[in-house]
Amino acid sequence: MRIDAAVLRAADAPYTIETLDLRDPGPGEVVVRIAGVGMCHTDLVGRVPGDLVPKPVILGHEGSGTVEAVGPGVPGLSPGDHVVMSFDSCGTCDNCRAALPGNCPRMAALNMVAAPLDGTPRVTAADGEAVHNRWFGQSSFATYALGTPRNVVPVRPDVPLELLGPLGCGVQTGAASVLISLGVRAGDGIAVFGAGAVGLAAVMAARVAGATQIIAVDLHASRLDLARELGATHVLNGADDDIAGQIRAISGGEGVQYSFDTTAVPEVVSTAVACLRTTGVCGLVGVGAKEYRLDANLLLMGRTVKGIIEGDAVPHTFIPRMIELWRQGRFPFDRLIQTYPLDQINQAEADAASGRVVKPVLLPN
Q1: DSSP annotation string for 138-175
Q2: Predicted local confidence at residue 124, as pLDDT
Q3: What is the C-alpha separation between 145 and 223, in angstroms, rounded?
């Protein structure tokens, strides 16, 4: 099958739109015609110098579309089904069986490497050159993507399919971290550091949960304004002095029960821990830091720091849950989105990096 894809050939190169060959699906494989694909901060891992992500590669891991074809041994999926593509997992380890697929021991191999597991290329250029297409089990910056039953989630057909892709990773991470991993309840307080797509999804989820103090912290005034519209009860500019002290004051002096960091900035993480009440929990989802330095006395007083992957969600159950909340008007994730044609991917990346756009969604078809 001929496909068009945005190919990254070097960490510091622009994406190029190329026509490639995608082989027919084999056992346990699904071909999805992509209607829309979100651009996530994690896609920038492909721009880290070195060999972490092999090149040339098709990135993109927030795809949505319709099933085009299924290989042998694929239950529950048929051509024409509307689907959202999420992260991949093995399905057989203890963590997967315990409904924690984000903690699958094969998480890195199945999602972050992008190379075919068996060494056999699925996508090739006209000259036979292999193009890596297993980024998060999908590589969906393309007109068609190859997935598996583990990361292809059927959804109802009466919702705007081209906008659903971010539910597969960024929006899922923010919302599920609040509703599942942290377990925020009615009456709780939470401070969210970073009002990008993940942080704003956390703000919306905290409102769904009934949190009474929802504090958003960011450097961009426009994102703070949007956070307030989406449910934040208070907003703080992260450049101000004593953010932890301001959060404790908002929460009555003791601090909030939960904080949530999306930035991976060490100084911000320290603040996220410092603003907690005793027994409070800080959830970390930011990628990129090498180490954090924390006040040991804060932890000795009963506070917890918790790393979270994909919100501890099971995509096949949580993605439909988010869609239903959206249909009820309680989770307006579409307000984060700006769409671009696939051939404007470099502009979309620049707009996201500058903070001008919260969540770019590319429309390959």
Answers
A1: T--SBSEEEE-TTTEEE--TTS-GGG-GGGGTHHHHHH
A2: 97
A3: 32
Let me know how long the chain is: 365
Look-up: residue for tokens 């960091």? 261
Instruction: Give CATH superfamily name and number for 2-168+332-363.
Output: Medium-chain alcohol dehydrogenases, catalytic domain (3.90.180.10)
Report residue 142 as tokens: 């393309």
Query: Can you say how many angstroms the Cα of residue 117 is from the centroid of all Cα atoms in its chain?
Result: 23
pLDDT digits (tens, 9 = 90+) for 252-275: 999 999 999 999 999 999 999 999
Give φ, ψ of 37 to 5 degrees: -145, 125
Residue found under tokens 């307030």: 228
Q: Pairing state of beta strands 213-218 and 234-237?
A: parallel
Token representation of residue 275: 């603003």
Q: Cβ(137)–Cβ(151) under 8 Å?
A: yes
The beta-strand segments (E) located in 52-114 are 57-58, 63-70, 82-85
- Where does the pLDDT of residue 52 fall: very low under 50, low under 70, confident under 90, or very high at 90 and above? confident
Mean pLDDT, residues 71-95 = 96
- SS3 for 334? helix
Place of tokens 């689907």: 83
- CATH number assigned to the domain with residue range 174-309, chosen from the 4 options 3.40.50.2300, 3.40.50.720, 3.20.20.140, 1.20.1260.10: 3.40.50.720
